[in-house]
Specification:
The chain is built from four helices and seven strands, in the order ααββββαβαββ. The protein has 137 residues and is of the alpha/beta class. It folds into two domains: 34 residues, no CATH class; 85 residues, Nucleotidyltransferase, domain 5. It is elongated, with a radius of gyration of 27 Å. It starts with a helix and ends with a strand.
Amino acid sequence: MKQHFANLVEEEDTQIDMTPMLDVVFILLIFFIVTASFVKEAGIDVNRPEAATAVQKDRANILVAISETGEVWINKRQVDVRAVQANIERLYAENPQGSVVIQADKKATTDVLIKVMDAARAAGVFDVSIATQEEGL
């Protein structure tokens, strides 16, 4: 009888329950996805002018790029100058703490730059910066 009982114990297969570990991993995955900050790009590469007083700007959430030919880009799509205000209003409504950073090419005309700055201010965003490059880079 004792030998029969010993055989039953050896045949019993013990398994580790993986469900709690999978729950924890899934919760961590959701946490990292929700808290991740994504880099937004204006849509084109701009040759920015150099400035001796360039300062790193944090929390710049609304990026507007102006190409050397005067094209305006927001969120990787080309936008007409007349539609810049509506686009900035929409993006500012999504994130009221954001600021506008204009990445103007050094060969872009100041006419387009001023129109974009006016559109940002008309949209209610008064924290408008112009992106430059540090001298010597």
